[in-house]
Design brief:
Its main location: membrane. One of its GO terms (cellular component) is plasma membrane. It is found in: Cell membrane; Cytoplasm. By secondary structure, the chain is mainly β. Helices cover about 10% and strands about 35% of the residues. The protein contains 15 helices and 63 strands. The protein has a six-stranded mixed β-sheet with strand order 35-36-37-41-39-44. The protein has a five-stranded antiparallel β-sheet with strand order 8-9-10-11-63. The protein is elongated and about 135 Å long.
Length: about 1100
């Protein structure tokens, strides 16, 4: 019966979660349409806007451009600051937190409030921030902005609430940590130095309290001046004027001497009682030359002087190497007794810190570990062994070992794939690490209930591919694959690879992986594709090579714009491989006439090679140079390996695919078929006879950013932008679905190509796949990005896959060695005889849903008018499916399926870096990721359910731990060692004694995370009890101290009363003139 469109049929798309009735087409512009369909579509949509919320979850990798380092010796957590204002806080594996300053200013200094669950950061905008770490998501409690002075150094004594802040002018200010208000007590630089000194001492580079007496503050100035300031008397105890600039100072735990590092590569040892000159000056790496002079050395930027009960003290410093030894790596030097060990590092040293057993600076330190922060790595050295081995890092700090060029994200993988990959990857792990437990073991983390197997794949510039276990918000490397082992090593400056790509000829451009069949495809920058199959056994194999020669008419070539030469956007400063053939050259312009048609860019190994267990190369496809021109880069790869097909598209002319249905009525200009050939293959492949090699046309890639192109000449330039295999209906008259290839172009055209594939296994080996364009053409705005298929119940139709079987496994006669295909259709109620299905098509600006086989447009939605979509995927969320889009303006959007109702639209981040566009990807379960920096992966979620469970899945940074008790100093040590414990900072720095600081000097800014952070921290009963216990312990400790003071006062009063009585008795009978 013929249907007629109703006037208000567009209203059927507006009911959230309701049943979708007769097909209609609604758009954001309000232009509903309808078309006759063979049946009613009855889809119960369950997703609403309440199911979506966008938030960051966790960040993996090494902090980009690190600047500062801090460690809490009681909580055993580590903090790393970065130039972009980020702070990473690390504990035991699973405890990994990222904080970001809103200002984005570089973090210059970090100070833990030891065992207090708080962190102070000093940023380059001269602002101090106090972070609350007693919650899973740390927040700023207070901020203090200095207006007139620049912060250069910070020091917080253990168990003190007063923070010393040194400035560029040489002054030292004091901040109350509890209120974050500046004290009126200031140590001015002109009072710290002698009045007769005519020059400014420079910025403050060091602050520390004397281990012997907390009332003495040691101040180090950059120009070489050192002052010990008596905080009670408000005067200098001593002043040291040294010729060389000072970089750092470190105390001996007894307070009887301290060591300084200088700009000339020397270390000086000073006695506070005799400061006229250092009693020891050493140049650890400065040797005496033949003429009697010492070698000039680099500055020693930091020194740590740590004592041990059982051995000689440790002197550990960075820098100080001789200038004469060119090309020497940055080094960390460990001096232990007479032994000097130099540990060379792969990158410059940013900061290092020695971890000790005690948090008290007046006790024997007992160092056990050195944490070294490099520009691109984190090294932890074991000091308890004479060989100083390093610890195996449990965090994924080597993501950037080679620059990341592409990413892929797979959620809800088969449960057996992660153990298999891990078992194979574990065989190739490095050895020689320290056997002791990882020293940064703070925090708590438990495996949450909402976890499932997740895998992240990263492709790199050196051709390596890494598989990561990303389950439960962690990241652990499972397996590493090196694609370069398929090829011979290219000689420098020789071969086609040198002409095409000078650096990184093996760089990975894109990957395609089927977790079920374990088939893996890799596209490289040198116009090559490698097909891998998984095996648990090693094997001796001959690599099958297939060389494809593609050619086009020279007038068909259009020069791409500078940043549009391939989809993996180029960027300034990024490490993505840059091609050297962006502009095609005329034949013979680069190579001699006789060398126009030489081989591919890389040479495949021709000999039999032994491959280890894991992914083993099964086929290598390479594109050849033609007429002296390099092959165009591969922009799209889609595998239909269940059909034994592999489609590779560069930029092909689509005239022949349209046929008579070409909407632009272009003149057909076929390539010169007689000049195309396939050469150099080692033997005839068992797959299809490269269907695209017979029909592909080479054109330069040019993406259209507009839905309409005014130039007729521009209309003739069309590129293939996406492909999708699937069981579909190639023609409207089809009754049963058949294998089809969906093709999307840069002009927004959708072409449907039926494939004729022999079903019998033997025929499949001998007969070729035939392709017959059906003439089916649909049009959208902008380049086509994604295809997906739903059944008539609205469930996602997964692509069929081949069940994995190990081709290298020993033969079992009871087991047939035949292919087994799995066709997945989630709706069991769907009949296989012509019920049809829904096709979801998304372009840069628009999304449409078509009903097959009638090809009627059911729904349409204009996603954006002012920007364009960079990434779109159909994903499963909350047992349903939706269309997720990421736009160039930073918006993340989700649309319901099949009605295309907007469910979420969040302005997440501005696209300031093309790296984000290249690496952003969605996956099932409401998750996504992107490369936030060259060294870090940021994971986000757009699922409300996951946001609600986020607190449960993240680790706890703070755990209730009792502060270790100070050692008994003994009577004599306490008597002769000064009255360090009688020092009360509150009496000196409080408002009653010191007054208020100038309001113009610093401005207090209350933090937004104060009240909210405390609410979140008090959310759990365990955390509440723990905090109550700590508060009770602190109260009991204060009461105990009060009792001790009371007892001391009573004893003192009794003694005074006794002496007064004795004096009265003695003087009782004396006359006035006898006194």
């Amino acid at each position: 019966m013929k249907k007629f469109r109703k006037v208000l049929d567009g209203l059927t798309t507006s009911s959230p979660g309701g049943t979708i009735g007769s097909p209609s087409c609604g758009s954001a512009a309000g232009t509903p349409t309808a078309a006759p369909t063979p049946r009613e579509i009855d889809v119960q949509e369950t997703l609403t806007s309440d199911n979506f919320q966008l938030c960051k979850t966790v960040r993996h990798g090494f902090p980009y451009q690190p600047t500062a380092l801090a460690f809490d010796p009681v909580q055993k957590i580590l903090a790393i600051g970065s130039r972009s204002g980020g702070v990473r806080i690390l504990g035991r594996p699973g405890v990994d937190c990222f904080c970001q300053h809103e200002s984005g200013a570089a973090v210059l200094h970090l100070q833990f409030l030891i065992n207090e669950g708080a962190l102070v950061t000093a940023c380059a905008d001269d602002t101090l921030h106090l972070w609350n770490l007693r919650q899973r998501r740390p927040a700023v409690l207070h901020s203090l902005k200095f207006n007139r002075e620049r912060i250069t150094f910070c020091h917080l004594p253990f168990q003190s609430k007063w923070l010393y802040v040194g400035t560029e002018r040489g002054n030292t200010h004091i901040v109350n940590i509890e209120s974050f208000i500046l004290s009126g007590y200031v140590i001015m630089w002109n009072k710290a130095i002698e009045l007769s000194t005519k020059t400014h001492p420079g910025p403050v580079v060091h602050l520390s309290d004397s281990p012997k007496d907390e009332g003495k503050l040691l101040i180090g100035f950059e120009a070489g001046t050192i002052v010990q300031w008596d905080l009670r008397a408000k005067k200098a105890d001593f002043r040291i004027y040294y010729d060389e600039a000072i970089h750092s100072v470190s105390w001996h735990h007894e307070g009887k001497q301290f060591m300084c590092s200088h700009s000339d590569g020397s270390l000086t040892l000073w006695n506070p009682r005799n400061t006229t000159k250092p009693f020891q000056v050493t140049f650890p790496h400065g040797k005496i030359q033949k003429d009697g002079r010492k070698e000039s050395c680099k500055p020693i930027l930091k020194v740590e002087y740590k004592t041990s009960r059982s051995s000689e003290p440790f002197i550990i410093f960075s820098g100080g190497l001789s200038y004469d030894k060119a090309g020497r790596r940055p080094a960390l030097t460990i001096m232990h007794g007479k032994a000097i060990t130099v540990l060379e590092m792969g990158y410059p040293i940013v900061e290092f810190m020695v971890l000790c057993e005690t948090p008290y600076n007046n006790e024997v330190q007992e160092p056990y570990t050195v944490v070294v922060l490099l520009e691109k790595d984190l090294i932890v050295v074991d000091l308890t062994q004479s060989s100083f081995p390093v610890f195996e890092n449990p965090y994924p700090m080597d993501i950037h070992e080679s620059p990341v060029t592409c990413t892929a994200y797979f959620a809800d993988c088969p449960p057996d794939i992660i153990p298999i990959l891990y078992s194979i990857g574990a065989k190739h792990k490095k050895t020689g690490y320290s056997h002791k437990e990882w020293p940064v073991g703070g925090g708590t983390w438990t495996l949450g209930s909402h976890t499932y197997p997740e895998i992240i794949i990263t492709g790199h510039a050196d051709g390596s591919i890494k598989f990561w276990d990303a389950s439960a918000f962690t990241l652990q490397m499972l397996y590493k694959l090196k694609t370069s082992k398929v090829f011979e090593k290219p000689k420098a400056g020789e071969g086609r690879s040198a002409e095409m790509v000078e650096e990184d000829p093996f760089a990975v451009q894109m990957v395609s992986w089927c977790p079920q069949s374990r088939i893996f495809c890799v596209v490289g920058i040198s116009a090559h594709i490698i097909l891998y199959r998984f095996s648990k056994y090693d094997a001796n194999t001959q690599i099958v090579s297939l060389e494809v020669r593609l050619q086009c008419e020279s007038e068909d070539v259009i020069t791409p714009s500078e940043n549009e030469n391939y989809p993996c956007f180029s960027e300034q400063g990024s490490h993505s491989p840059q091609p050297h053939h962006q502009h095609p050259v005329s034949p013979g312009s680069r190579t001699p006439e006789g060398a126009k048609d030489r081989g591919p860019c890389l040479k495949v190994k021709e000999r039999v090679v032994r491959v280890p267990p894991g992914y083993q190369s099964d086929l290598v496809i390479q594109l050849l140079w033609v007429d002296g021109e390099p092959p165009q880069q591969i922009t799209i790869l889609h595998d239909g390996l269940s059909l034994h097909l592999l489609v590779i598209i560069l930029c092909m002319s689509t005239v022949d695919l349209y046929g008579a249905t070409d909407p632009y009525q272009r003149l057909t200009r076929s390539p010169r078929r007689n000049r195309q050939s396939t050469s150099g293959s080692t033997h005839k492949p068992t797959r299809a006879n490269t269907p695209t090699a017979d029909k592909s046309r080479e054109n330069s890639f040019s993406r259209s950013r507009s839905s309409s192109v005014s130039s007729i000449d521009r209309d003739t330039k069309e590129a293939i932008t996406t492909l999708q295999f699937g069981e579909s209906y190639g023609r409207k008259s089809d009754v049963l679905p058949t294998p089809c290839l969906w093709v999307g172009t840069s002009l927004g055209m959708v072409l449907l190509i039926p494939l004729s594939i022999p079903t019998d296994h033997e025929e499949r080996m001998e007969e070729a796949v035939t392709v017959g364009p059906s003439g089916a053409v649909q049009m959208l705005k902008g380049s086509i990005l994604r295809f997906a298929f739903l059944d008539c119940m609205g469930a996602l139709i997964q692509s069929p896959y081949e069940v994995w079987r190990d081709l290298n496994a020993p033969e079992d006669p009871d087991r047939p060695r035949r292919r087994k295909l799995v066709h997945f259709s989630p709706s069991s109620s769907q009949d296989a005889n012509g019920d049809g299905h829904l096709a979801v098509v998304c372009s840069e600006r628009q999304a449409k849903v078509f009903l097959m086989p009638s090809q009627a447009c059911l729904f349409v939605h204009n996603i954006t008018e002012s920007s364009f979509v960079l990434r779109a995927d159909v994903v499963s969320v909350c047992n349903s499916v939706c269309l997720a889009c990421f736009c160039a303006n930073g918006h993340v959007m989700t649309l319901s399926l099949p009605s295309l109702r907007p469910l979420m639209d969040v302005n997440y981040l501005p696209l300031t870096d093309m790296r984000i566009a290249r690496t952003f990807c969605f996956t099932n379960g409401g998750q996504a990721l992107y490369l936030s920096s060259p060294t870090e992966i940021q994971r986000i979620t757009y699922s409300q359910e996951m946001c609600d469970n986020l607190q449960e899945m993240l680790g706890e940074l703070f755990t209730p731990i009792e502060t270790p008790e100070a050692q008994n100093r003994g009577f004599l040590k306490g008597f002769f060692g000064g009255n360090a414990h009688a020092f009360d900072r509150e009496e000196l720095f409080g408002e009653a004694a010191a007054g208020k600081a100038s309001r113009s000097l610093a401005q207090h800014i209350p933090g937004q995370g104060g009240v909210e952070g405390m609410k979140m921290a008090a959310g759990g009963a365990v955390g509440e009890l723990a905090r109550a216990r700590i508060a009770l312990d602190e109260r009991g400790q204060r009461l105990g101290e009060l009792e001790e003071r009371t007892a001391l006062m009573m004893t003192s009063a009794e003694s005074f009363s006794k002496h007064a009585h004795e004096l009265m008795l003695k003087c009782k009978d004396k006359k006035w003139y006898q006194f």
